[in-house]
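User: Please predict structures.

Assistant: First:
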Amino acid sequence: MRLLLPALVAILVMPAAMAGDLLDAVKQRGTLKIALEGTYPPFNFRDAKQQLTGFDVEIATEIAKRMKLKPEFTTAEWSGLLAGLQSGKFDIVVNQVGVTEQRKAVFDFSQPYTYSSAQLIVRKNETRNFKSLADLNGKKLGVGQGSNYADMAKAVAGVQVKTYPGAPEYLQDLAIGRLDAALNDSLLIPFAIKQAKLPLKAGAPVGEVATMAIPFAKGNPQFKAAIDQALTGMKADGTFKKISVKWFGIDVAKAPAAKK
């Protein structure tokens, strides 16, 4: 689940009437320009052959296919993804973008396609029972820089929040004792721990269930309908569930009960 930089909210959105519906533009071009980080496994990353892969990559590729378009992927750091979308560099961002009121003021969104919650990560031999962020009062917590989890942690008094470029860095610090816990997406954690090969484990879920969807420029109802139609079809014929189970072992399109 990712965070929109506050500065973006102040940027005015071009009226749709000035540009026509985005669906016309992508159909004429024949490609769907898709942006993601490419460094966010298991959602999107490069394999041993440096090919983009992951859950979001497969979902985005299938959406483009059902729209009869060729997927055209661009990778960028998280801080540049939504800014690039705002400036028209991409058509969509498929990178686990959380739906928030702040973002809805700037972008339109597809129907939800992923649900998850925040979850703690601790050392495998941890004996302290951290059940909530409040239990980390006076403790050091690692989070990704610019993420929703950073804001979530900083809102809890007494937690010493340390930010990192990504999961590999804070997982390493957690394993060697520089942190007491870390915080990330409940769907990402099992994969991240497996890849890191460090003595860590998933801790307690914290916070409410978050909804992820695909953002695009405001004022494009035909484009939104085409994206939603692709997602609805994937869910109806089992394609979405097949991709989801491949990467997570569950259907992430089904919202779990909120945990606090």
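Second:
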Amino acid sequence: MQHIDAAMHMLRRRRTDYPLTFPQKGIILSTFVTAMIGGAWTSHKGPRKNFKWEDYILDYCTGFHKSQVFERWRGNEFIYFVLHLPTARHWVTVEVDIELWKINVYDCDSSVRHWTAMEPILKVWSNRRPR
């Protein structure tokens, strides 16, 4: 995953260093952040309706910890991250429209996994929106 995070860091840095050329309309998450959010969601024991996001997750979303890794969601239009599909040993890119909470998946090799197999994975991700 380090090679994926290195690529995500370079994309974030490019936007920071050249804001006029690469306007910042979206957040690029590292695999650390997606694992942190995913871990918080999957470790919950009990009904999903009782799930509450921990302060460290909400602090991340609000940009409380200001850094290149922890960008504030407000004021941005999209969240971008890569999602590892372990059974297929394959990575896809995910784009989340923050306003509509609509998810788009970009896959360079759709023959690896049919889109219908992605539905259960994305359903879990669609329910993770910190409020």
